[in-house]
Design a protein that fits this description.
The protein is mainly beta. It is built from 2 helices and 13 strands; from the N terminus they run H-E-E-E-E-E-E-E-E-E-E-E-E-E-H. Bound molecules: manganese (II) ion.
């Protein structure tokens, strides 16, 4: 599979989840790959998985050797993911703005640039922007099976989002 084909598969896969992953290259490249900024089309976060305006900028796909994939996800003010769980967990690295995250049954937490959030296997949670600020985080997930990085659940209500 040529790199640009992998990116097309990645772009399709990214519409399905927070992480950009899921493109399993048919072969392993034995040289560095430099994915140039702007080569991969941004994808709008699907309304069935997100509340508000969300953009996923794919960073890199998983391959046969490296099972993690990465994407940069930007939430406009008030936007957030639905509740979800990750089959292998997730690392989030906040790169700009102010955001919020919450584990099921626990208080809403504010998150800021430089914060790293580790979401363990199977822990129900959401993440998104603050009400008056956009937020961007890098999301890194590993695949349990090809293309499977997230299991989507119900939307986050306004009451939950506002911590009431
Ligand atoms: Mn998550």
């Amino acid at each position: 599979m040529k790199p640009n084909m992998a990116f097309e598969a990645l772009a399709l896969a990214a519409t399905m989840g927070l992480c950009s992953g899921a493109a399993f290259a048919a072969e392993t490249h034995r040289e560095q790959t430099i994915i140039r900024n702007g080569e991969q089309a941004a994808i709008k976060g699907a309304a069935q998985f997100f509340t508000g305006d969300v953009r996923v900028d794919p960073l890199y796909p998983a391959n046969n050797d490296m099972r993690s994939s990465g994407g940069s996800v930007t939430f406009e003010p008030g936007a957030r993911s639905h509740w979800h769980v990750h089959p292998v967990g997730q690392a989030l690295i906040v790169t700009s703005g102010v955001g919020r995250t919450q584990e099921w049954g626990k208080p809403v937490q504010e998150i800021r640039p430089g914060d790293v959030i580790l979401c363990p296997v199977g822990v129900k949670h959401w993440h998104g922007a603050a009400p008056n600020s956009a937020m961007t985080h890098i999301s890194i997930c590993e695949e349990k099976e090809p293309g499977k990085v997230v299991e989507w659940l119900e939307p986050v209500t306004d009451e939950q989002y506002n911590g009431r």
